[in-house]
Structure formats: structure tokens, C-alpha cells
Amino acid sequence: MGPFMPAGSTAVPVRLVEDELGRQMQALQGGDESPVHRACMSNLVIFCDQRSQAEEIAGLVPQIVAAHPARVLLVVGESGEPDAAGVSASAVVREMETGRNQRSFSEQITLHASAGGIGRLPFAVRALLIGDLPINLWWATHQPPPLAGPLLYDLAENAQQIIYDSLGWVDPTRAVAATYSWLHEFELGLRGGHWRVASDLNWRRLKFWRRITKQAFEDAAAPGAVASATELVVDHGPHAVVQAWELVSWLTSQLGWTVQTGNVQQGLEIGWQFHAPHGVVPVRIRRLPEGPPEVLTLRLQCMLGGTPGAVVIRAEESRRHVVVLENVVSAPRTANFQAPSLAELLSKQLSDRERDSVFTESMAVAQLLARSVLD
Amino acid sequence: MRAYAQLKVKLDALDQQFGIPGSRVFYLAVPPQVVHLCVQHLKEAGMVRDAAEQAAFTRVIVEKPIGRDLNSAREVIRVVGATFAESQTYRIDHYLGKETVQNLLVLRFANSIFEPLWNEKHIDHVQITVAEEEGLAQYDADTGQMTSTRAGYYEGVGCLRDMLQNHMLQVLCMVAMEPPWSLAPEVVRDAKVGVLNCLRQLNANDVDKVVVRGQYIEGEVHGQRVPGYRKEVRTSFESMNKELPPGSVNSTTDTFVALKLFVDNWRWAGVPFYLRTGKRLPKRISEVAIQFKDVPQVLFNSHPATPLEPTVLSVRVQPEEGLSMRIASKLPGPKIRIYPVKMEFNYSSSFGNKSPEAYERLLLDVMAGDATLFMRRDQVEAAWKFVMPILDRWEQTHVRDLPEYQCGTWGPVEADRIIEADGRAWRNV
Q1: Phi, psi at residue B22, to the nearest 5°?
Q2: Domain ranges of chain A
Q3: SS3 A36
């Protein structure tokens, strides 16, 4: 199989990439005298380790740059037979939809290497970054960053933000156990004037869940529910265990509960005993055999109006979230929520470079939860 | 000597043929140790006219390196000066012929917004980067065979002498000089030498702390494996059928230099200038970056963990001449979120035509008798005076191995420490 090359790209030696981009830009301008702009807010380096994933992401790039114009370096490092050519490159300039009398273009460079050639990719990336613009690294593989090794650090050299997605992580428990320490080291282990942040797209996906959970557990909405909680259960679809884990970590950290013990039923359920101000509360995250890869239901068993009940938040197929108070006569509350696409999620994250202390705190709790399970 | 005599006959014949007065420009792109021979032969062949002659002129261009240290530079200056008057001598540094370098003067003194900010009150620091992709040798892209090498010149000379002592200090002068009171060559050159005279002299201890040299080892450039410096030296000498000098077996020639310096005058008091240059770096780029001081850590800059990117004016000398300014801007949307944006001016896209090559411009200046962009003898000497403590210290320390950096990286980690110790970082260029 030859080097990966997105549709419309032109294969070119690495050393001639800039020339090729210039040539394509000029060709696209043609005889038109309206101004031509290279739209570029940042350098976006995307790393994938599978061709199928690279194909999927290449299809998203036009949507991403429409929201966040960037020079995209799609870097594909496939394991397998070494490619004789070392690092292969291709380049494409695309016209973007902009206002009248103005034409904007975005650039995409694809770099491909396999097996032993993967270590050469950071060298090629370094030479193709546009100076003075922020560098974002989207670590798009399922390999968790804390377990990734030197390639991630080489690609993240001088990056202000690394974006990863814990959805579908391999070895989630070990990965979660390592994330908080890694975040600390990765974000704060820099000297000089450098700074960088790490962001998890999965955490961003939970934004709506966090908001609606907070509202549902407020005393005004469910009086005494939290103070009388007897069990918390989160159900999720396949591959969303880390999302559920992050939700539990966030929620228990907000409620001030502390973990005592944990156990795992491989592939089915993870459970913990939490110490809450009113006593011990079991918390479980359960994997459903099918369904979308996301948190599907959150159920807090508690006392409502003096009788046993539960606060249930359920994601429905129509992208509606329903909040139900079980055993209480009241109409369910609903909230509409349009789940952002991966391209939208990423575009928003690219512009959002503030360090999220709530995320960090939640990951500190997540680490304790993971350790309680691993111990 | 016979060749010079033949040259004179030929040139005289051409003058006669075309009816021209016999003005001559001699260009000495030769090693410093043979400059005296060339000059002597030109004189003996009767090809040097007196500076006062009106009918025609004789001028000499002296290419770098002008010496390999202060003493040899003075010797070159002396031997050239024995035959040519200073007004006939043009010490060339092609960097000064670049449009952007000349534009520094215009940028600073033809725009009302920059000069009031061009001082220690507003500028945090300045970075000058001259990065080369090339190593010692050139290779055929297809076969990987060595096609040419500069080993004969470069080995034993190194980066400090080849780049920093001349190009970079000359660019520094353009950045840091006081406003000249006219554009007359001597006035501009006075202003430039004023900067060199204000450079804080380094002692041995300073050199250890604020100067880092390095040498490239095997690595990657543009996705291709490239050999380290020592191997290139060996292969180069083999290809030239020359014996490798004993001192080059484990060469300690610097292919990378980074340093911090200060211009001790009223304008630049306390403002560090960070200079770095090297071979086999990730990309070919030369730029001057003026980084302005941060805004206070209130309002938009109140997150100490993720401070706003500072405002930077970047003057790009090559490959695409131009300048850019990085400023903070609000991202569109209901929230106040700040993102750095870059305003760019590019010579080729603004003015259409490609700028003339630096040498074209400079050669034209020589013919026109305009020495503004050429180094006067005192400039050359002042630049060497600054560099000598570094060379002396390196000579004394006799290192066996220099800090190494892989081809395709931004130099040895030791270079990062110079700037990181001050809470700053090298720019992503």
C-alpha cells in the first residue's frame, strides 16, 4: 500500500512542500484580481496511527478549517512494513467560503511514514510550521497521551495546546490512572516563557451533561436529593467508559465525596464506595452492550419528599435530555441538546486555550478512582 | 603576476573598444591570507588609480571573512588600505543589501508609531535568528551523492566567524542604531558603529554563561537522513582528495551559536538581545523579532498560567522578505476570548516584482560610489572586538566535544537554557 494521500492532494517531496503550496495558491487565484488571503489562525498538527482514521479525519478537515482556519499538518504514522521513501508528503490548497470580494484559502499538508520512519515525522513537521502562530496538536489516536511516549513530546514541541480524545482509549483504567500526573507534568513542566494546555474532547462533550446534572441536583429542583443519596449509577454505551468516569469524577468532586474502595467487573461495570457527609454511597458505571458511545443515563437514588425515589437524567435518541424525579408526581423536564460533531467540537477547542481547573480537579479524582480499582 | 598584467591589457583594450574611461571595480572574494597578494598584484600591474582621480575610479570590494580574528582583520584592513583609500574600499556584507534590512531604517524612521516604542521602556527583548537548512555539503536529491562542499572554507572557521561576527552584528546595528541625522553614508555608518561600541564586552565567565556553541550530528532534514558534521568533514576531504588535517579528525568547529548580549546605552539599557544561528536547522529563515513588553496581568491577561502571547514585530530577511506583527485580538463570539493574530506584509505580494538580489543592489552601490551599506574599517574592528573574548575563551577551554544537536532540530538544549534562565523562550519561527 502506498503513502496515504487525501483526495485532491498532490504528492511532493517534503523539501518542496512550500513551493507546491505557493504554486497551487497562484493557480487558484487565476486572473481574478480580488484579494487572495491565506486564512490561518494557527498550526494544527493532527497525528493518527491508522489509515482508516486518517481518511476519516481528512474528510473533516474542510469543516474544521471553516470554523478555525489553520495550516493543517495531517501526520500519519502507520505501524507495519517500513516505507522505502521515509516520509512522504502531499499538499493541497482549498478555497474557503468567505464574504464577497474576498477569497480565502487554507492549506493542508499530509505527511506519511510507516514503521521505523515514524520517528522522522517530527523533523518534517518542525520545518513546515508557520512561525509566530500558535501550534495545536490534535493527538487523534486511541493511544492515551500519558502512555504515548516520546513521539507525542516531539510533536508537541512548542505547542500551546494538545487536544486528545479519551473516547475509545485503549487500556482506560491505566490511562485514567496516569492522566492527572501526566497533565501536571505536561502542562507545568515547561521552562522559560512556554506554556501549554491539554484538553480532552470527551470532557468537552460532557459540558451539557455537567450543566444539566448541576441543575437537576440543586435543592430547588430536587430538595434533599444529594444529602440523602444512597446510590449513583451511570450507564454508558460501548467505548464511553472514560466519559462516564470523568462525569463521576467531576460530580463526586463537586459533591465533596471521597472514594474508599473500588472494584471492576471487566467489560461490565466499575464500582466504588464513596464516603459522603451523610454516609457511604456506592457509585457504579455500567457499560451497556449497545448504544451510542456516550453517557446514556445517570441515576441518583435518594429520598424525595420523604419517600424513596431517584433523580434520573436520560439522554434520548432525539438528542433530548430528560430529567425525571421517580416516585414524585411531577412532569419530566426536558432540555434539547444538539450534540456537536467531531469537527465542531475540535474547532471550538482550538480557540479555547484557557486551562480548565475544574477538568484538572476532576482528573485528580479520576486518578484516585483508578488507583482504587488497580490496587 | 603575469595574469594581472594580462588582465590589464584586456581591460584597457575593452576601454578603448567601447570608449569608456577605465573605471574598475575589483571584487576580492578570496581567503583573508591572500588578500595582500591580490592587492599587491593589482597595484604592480598598474590597475589602481588614485582616489582623487576624477576621470575614472578604481574601487575594491572585499568579501568576508575579513580576517579570522581582530589581528588578522586589522592586517587585511592595513594591506588593503596601503593601496586603496577608505573611500575606494567596500567591505561587503550581502545581508545589508536585503530589502528588509534596509527597510528597518524606513520602518523605524518613516513611521510615527514605532520609534516612540523603540526603547527599553516598551521592548522586552530582541531575537535575531539566522537559520540555515544546509550543512557543510550539498547532496544530489535523487542519488544522495555529495555534489559540493564548503569544508575547505568552513572547517576551523565556524559559525561565530562565518555568520555572527558579520551578518548578525550588522543586522543588530540596523535594529539598535540611533536615528542618523542624514542618510549620508558616513552619518549612517557612524550611527551603526555607535551600536557596536556600546556592546557590553564579555569576560570569560560571561562567555561560559551566555554563549553556547554546538555542532550538528546525524539527523533528518525534509524527511531525509543527513550525516553529522564530522562525517561531512571527512567525506568532504576525501572527495577533494585532501588529507584530513589532524585537528579536524575530531573537529570542534561550531556549526551553531546562540548568545545573549546587551547594548549598553540609554535606549537599550537592560534589554537583552538573543542571537542564534546555525546550520542544519529545521528551516531556512532569517528574522529579527522585536518582542514588546507584556500588558499588565489584569483584564485580558489575568491568567498567569496561560498568559497572552506578547506583541511581536517580526522582520523577515529571508526567504520571503517582509514583516509581520502579532497582536492579540478578540475571537468573534459572545465571550471575550483572546487569540493572537498576525498582520503580514510581504514584499513580493505587495510590490509584485521580486526584490533585486542583495548582491545586485550592493554592486550597483559600489559603481555609484555609495558606501552606506558597506562596513567601514572601524565597524569591522568593533565587531571583532566584541567577538574576540568568545574566541579566546573557546581557545582556552579545549573542549573535546561540543554540545550536539540533531540535524533538523533548533540547536542544542544548552541554547534553550540561555533564554529560559531569563523566563523567556526562543521563538517559533
Answers
A1: 95, 25
A2: 10-200, 204-341+358-374
A3: strand
More confident residue, B225 or B168: B168
Which domain-ending residue is among B91, B113, B141?
Answer: B91
Q: Which residue has better confidence, B172 or B309?
A: B172
Cβ distance A131 to B287 less than 8 Å, yes or no, reads: yes
**Window B:317-376, CB contacts with A under 8 Å:** 324, 326, 331, 337, 339-342
Q: Are A296 and A315 in contact (CB under 8 A)?
A: yes
Q: Measured between alpha carbons, how far is residue B14 from residues A46, A88, B7, B17, B268 in Å?
A: 63, 54, 11, 5, 53
Q: Are B364 and B374 in contact (CB under 8 A)?
A: no
Distance CA(B215)–CA(B404), nearest Å, equals: 5
Query: Same domain, yes or no, for B215 and B349?
Result: yes
Strands (E), chain A: 10-12, 36-38, 42-48, 70-78, 88-96, 103-114, 135-139, 161-164, 197-200, 231-236, 258-265, 269-276, 279-287, 295-304, 307-315, 320-326, 333-336
Closest-CA distance of chain A to residue B414, Å = 13
Phi and psi at A19, nearest 5°, equal -60, -45
Candidates B226, B306, B327, B409, partner chain A, best to mutate (most A CBs within 10 A): B306
Inform me whether the C-beta atom of residue A348 falls under 8 Å from chain B C-beta atoms: no
What is the pLDDT, as a whole number, of residue B421? 92
Which alpha helices (H) appear in B259-411, and where do they start and end?
Answer: 347-351, 358-368, 377-397
- Write the DSSP symbol of residue A96: E
Q: How confident is the model at residue B85 (pLDDT cuts 50, 70, 90)?
A: very high
Question: What value does the mean pLDDT of chain A take?
Answer: 89
**Which of B339, B340, B337 has its CA nearest to residue B324?**
B340
Q: B67 and B179: one domain?
A: no
Local structure of B327: helix, strand or coil: strand
For residues B279 and B348, membership in a common domain is answered with yes
Give the containing element (helix H, strand E) for B213.
Answer: strand B211-217
* Consecutive H or E run containing A293: none
Question: Is B404 in CB contact (< 8 Å) with chain A?
Answer: no
| Torsion angle defined by CA atoms of residues A233, A237, A242 and A243, in that order, rounded to the nearest 10 degrees | -80
Mean pLDDT, rounded, for B357-368: 89
CATH topology of domain A204-341+358-374: Dihydrodipicolinate Reductase; domain 2 (3.30.360)
Instruction: Give catalytic residues of B, as residue numbers.
Output: 167
Q: Is the pTM of this model over 0.80?
A: yes
CA B262 to chain centre: 17
Tens digit of each residue's pLDDT (9 = 90 or more) over A154-170: 999 889 999 999 998 88
Tell whether the model's pLDDT for residue B304 goes beyond 80: no
Q: What would the grid cell of residue A337 be?
A: 441538546
The Cα–Cα gap between B342 and A133 comes to 7
Higher pLDDT, B118 or A327: B118
Single-letter residue type at A159: A
Mutation for B interface: A42, A75, A132, A136, most B CBs within 10 A: A132
Residue A367 has pLDDT above 60, yes or no: yes
Q: Which domain holds residue B41?
A: 2-91
CB B427 within 8 A of CB B237: no
CB contact under 8 Å between A14 and B222, yes or no, is yes
Q: Residue B71 — very low, low, confident or very high, per pLDDT cuts 50/70/90?
A: very high
Asked if the Cβ–Cβ distance from B222 to A86 is below 8 Å, we say no
SS3 B346: strand
**Model pLDDT, residue B94:** 87
CA-angle at A92, arms to A90 and A98, nearest 5°: 160
How far does chain B reach from its first CA to its final CA, in angstroms? 49
- B227 falls in which pLDDT band (50, 70, 90)? very high
Cell of A111: 505527511
Task: Count Cβ–Cβ pairs < 8 Å, chain A vs chain B.
Answer: 102
**Chain A residue with the nearest C-alpha to that of B131:** A127
Cross-chain Cβ contact B282/A123 below 8 Å: yes
Q: How confident is the model at residue A100 (pLDDT cuts 50, 70, 90)?
A: low
